[in-house]
Amino acid sequence: VMRRNPFGMDMCCRKGSRSPLQELYNPTQLSNTAILHQIRRDQVTDTCRANSVSSRKRRVLTPNDLKHLVVDEDHEMIYCYVPKVACTNWKRVMMVLTGRGKYSDPMEIPANEAHVSSNLKTLNQYSIPEINHRLKNYMKFLFVREPFERLVSAYRNKFTQKYNTSFHKRYGTKIVRRQRKNATQEALRKGDDVKFEEFVAYLIDPHTQREEPFNEHWQTVYSLCHPCHIHYDLIGKYETLEEDSNYILQLAGVSNYLKFPTYAKSTRTTDEMTTEFFQNISSEHQTQLYEVYKLDFLMFNYSVPSYLKLE
């Protein structure tokens, strides 16, 4: 469907006012922030080139590949959401931006409402010419996080919380059935006590990916957002979430009335916590798991975690 435009943009935009893309690529004054984002973009481009065989298995994207790309027509922005990387708050912000005055404070929007798909428009809902036009002219961004920290965060949220019964039924029962010898009838029925080791074994089992794509909460960023096919103008990081988010809102020209919500979450998954979860994983399984997420590590410049015992 789409060919990559190497410049990721057209310089033709609105007369009189500078578009977010013009401000990003030809800043009025060159800032360290603009340089930082250029380095991040180059890292993605270089990784895609170096791994072109594995990264471009599918030459052409179909509209179905674009369901994670949220479109804001008013500010000409596209946000690819990655679960477990502040995506609830970014969806809330997108609802404020696209709601035409319906919402003013992102944090007044209940979390479950932010995930109702009809509240935001995604790129797969457009015709192919409209898709191409938006990919060429809109400012595109995504947020990434250290891959294993994101994975532990997904595991903690989906498999250790009692209220996530739909995940326990849909995935937990399958993981227990496949990975646990002598599982009890109750565990097979409920699937609500999956151990992290069993979750990892399920992820590296070749049968898993053959059967169906990974769930979006543990799918690679590279498969959700297609950074080797779509040229992202900004790559925000979870580690610098507020600065990166507010820079995007500044480029969009809305920073005078909209700030990214700050929240101190005491329960959030940290590096120390991730280290602990990986202690019980064999070096063989660690190596196989690293292979699954390797492109995310390379593309977004995350070093191999010091706690890994790779073979």
Characteristics:
globular, 47% helix, 2 domains, five-stranded mixed sheet, 311 residues, alpha/beta, 5 strands
Give a verbal description of the structure.
This is Carbohydrate sulfotransferase. Belongs to the sulfotransferase 2 family. Its EC number is 2.8.2.-. GO terms for molecular function: sulfotransferase activity. It is an enzyme of class 2 (transferase). This protein is an alpha/beta fold. It folds into two domains: 20-147 and 219-252, no CATH class; 150-217 and 269-292, no CATH class. 47% of the residues lie in helices and 6% in strands. It has helices at 20-25, 32-50, 52-55, 87-98, 111-114, 128-137, 147-159, 165-179, 185-190, 196-204, 206-211, 221-225, 241-251, 271-278, 283-299; strands at 69-72, 77-80, 121-122, 139-144, 234-237. A five-stranded mixed sheet has the order 3-1-2-4-5. Helix 7 packs across helix 14, helix 8 (165-179) crosses helix 10 and helix 10 (196-204) packs across helix 15. The longest helix is centred in the first third of the chain and has 19 residues, at 32-50. The protein is globular. Residues 1-16 have low confidence and may be disordered.
Indicate the topology:
Blueprint (H helix, E strand, L loop, with lengths): L19 H6 L6 H19 L1 H4 L13 E4 L4 E4 L6 H12 L12 H4 L6 E2 L5 H10 L1 E6 L2 H13 L5 H15 L5 H6 L5 H9 L1 H6 L9 H5 L8 E4 L3 H11 L19 H8 L4 H17 L12
Parallel strand pairs: 2-4, 4-5
Antiparallel strand pairs: 1-2, 1-3
Helix pairs in contact: 7-14, 8-10, 10-15
